[in-house]
């Protein structure tokens, strides 16, 4: 009986050992511990740290780990895709580092990296896994593609349109695009017109463009000049990360100068061919002009006797005038055309040239009422009155006698 019990116990111990030995085996699993930078960026390198862990109860012998990168990932020439791990005991971990290049045209989002490792000592059987790596541009670029102001110069009191076109340079769509032009500053004499100063776009696909139009009006009293309008753009990438960018829009307020020249006065008469002519230069425009110069051009009909044929006017304010005087000699004609050349600049230093031809009619002194002959009837009346008084006194004297 005792022998049977002993035999049974020995059998159970041996059987238990056999079952235990049969249940011990290695179980390998690969995961990404981390990668830097995260997310990976197109056109740059990413360092990938792959963790190979033995979750089994037996040793894994002669272990090797390989990466087999496919687009958009690649290894530089000469770089090995293999790490020799060797012995990896139960619950042990091995971390392998690989430096991969990310293609510059990589599509944003989750991309797969293939890895494999052998599951037998002779490296005849391999297990393969695909690990996720997120690729995303460092700063999804929504660029201001162009800014157009129509008209190029806004006249005080009139409207203009700001056309701001944006372009999505990212590899994926951008959403919640908000463009705001800030007209709140007291130094900006503009107001929105027929449209708000803030506009939105739900989504813009990769490489697509979109134009935002803002109509504004310049206050009637807006001085000429260049005004800087702040613009702020906010948007989100395909994973919801928000971005903000700020810029400046330059708007020119100005109007074309309106300069008029007239003959203010003259001492010239037909009997006196030498005299002065006074010209009045009037600024009828909305804005001031500056650095004005006036030149009289001599012709066959008259000769300039002044020391110079030019007169520097300088600055001429809106709704104001200046005068310039020249001494000339008329030759034969009583009607002459006087050519003038004007040169001046507006507030923004734009140079203007203007040619003016003034028609001057020269009259006789008699027609202008400048000679005594025109008052002969006055003298005649005086003579008649004196003669009448003389005759009256003479008759009165005879009657007394």
Description of the molecule:
The chain has 401 residues and is mainly beta. The chain folds into three domains: 26-135, Immunoglobulins (Immunoglobulin-like), CATH 2.60.40; 142-253, Immunoglobulin-like (Sandwich); 259-368, Sandwich (Immunoglobulin-like), CATH 2.60.40. It contains three helices and 25 strands. It has helices at 2-23, 365-368, 376-400; strands at residues 28-36, 45-54, 60-68, 73-74, 82-88, 93-102, 109-118, 126-135, 142-150, 153-154, 159-168, 174-181, 190-192, 198-204, 209-218, 225-236, 242-253, 259-266, 274-283, 289-296, 302-304, 310-316, 320-330, 335-345, 351-361. The strands form six sheets. The chain has a five-stranded mixed beta sheet with strand order 10-17-16-12-14, with no helix packed on it. A four-stranded antiparallel beta sheet has the order 1-2-6-4, with no helix packed on it. A four-stranded antiparallel beta sheet has the order 5-3-7-8, with no helix packed on it. Strand 7 (109-118) and strand 8 form a beta hairpin. The longest helix has 25 residues, at 376-400. Residues 15-22 have low confidence and may be disordered.
């Amino acid at each position: 009986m005792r022998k049977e019990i002993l035999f049974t116990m020995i059998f159970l111990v041996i059987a238990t050992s056999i079952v235990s030995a049969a249940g011990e085996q290695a179980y390998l699993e690969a995961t990404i511990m981390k990668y830097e930078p995260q997310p990976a960026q197109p056109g740059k390198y990413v360092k990938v740290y792959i963790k190979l862990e033995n979750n089994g109860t037996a040793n894994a012998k002669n272990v090797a780990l390989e990466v087999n990168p496919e687009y958009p990932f690649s290894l530089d020439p000469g770089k090995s895709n293999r790490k020799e791990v060797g012995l990896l005991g139960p619950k042990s971990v091995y971390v392998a580092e690989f430096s991969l290049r990310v293609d510059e045209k990589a599509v944003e989002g989750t991309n797969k990296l293939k890895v494999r490792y052998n599951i037998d000592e002779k490296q005849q059987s391999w297990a393969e896994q695909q690990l996720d790596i997120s690729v995303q541009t460092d700063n999804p670029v929504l660029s201001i593609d162009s800014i157009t102001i129509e008209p190029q110069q806004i006249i005080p009191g009139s409207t203009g349109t700001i056309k701001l076109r944006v372009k999505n340079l990212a590899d994926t769509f951008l959403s919640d695009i908000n463009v705001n032009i800030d007209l709140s500053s007291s130094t900006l004499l503009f107001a929105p017109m027929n449209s708000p100063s803030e506009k939105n776009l739900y989504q813009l696909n990769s490489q697509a463009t979109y134009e935002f139009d803002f109509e504004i009006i310049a206050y009637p009293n807006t001085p000429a000049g260049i005004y800087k309008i702040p613009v702020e753009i906010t948007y989100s990438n395909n994973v919801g990360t928000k971005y903000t960018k700020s810029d400046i829009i330059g708007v020119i307020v100005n109007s074309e100068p309106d300069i008029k020249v007239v003959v203010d006065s003259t001492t010239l008469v037909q009997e006196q061919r030498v005299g002065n002519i006074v010209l009045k230069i009037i600024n009828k425009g909305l804005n001031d002009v500056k650095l004005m110069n006036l030149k009289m051009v001599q012709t066959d009909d008259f000769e300039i006797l002044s020391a110079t044929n030019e007169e520097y006017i300088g600055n001429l304010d809106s709704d104001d005038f200046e005068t310039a005087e020249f001494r000339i000699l008329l030759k034969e004609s009583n009607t002459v055309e006087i050519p003038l050349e004007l040169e001046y600049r507006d507030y923004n230093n734009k140079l203007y040239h203007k040619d003016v031809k003034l028609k001057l009619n020269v009259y006789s002194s008699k027609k202008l009422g400048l000679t005594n002959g025109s008052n002969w009837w006055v003298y005649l009346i005086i003579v008649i009155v004196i003669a009448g008084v003389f005759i009256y006194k003479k008759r009165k004297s005879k009657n007394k006698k």
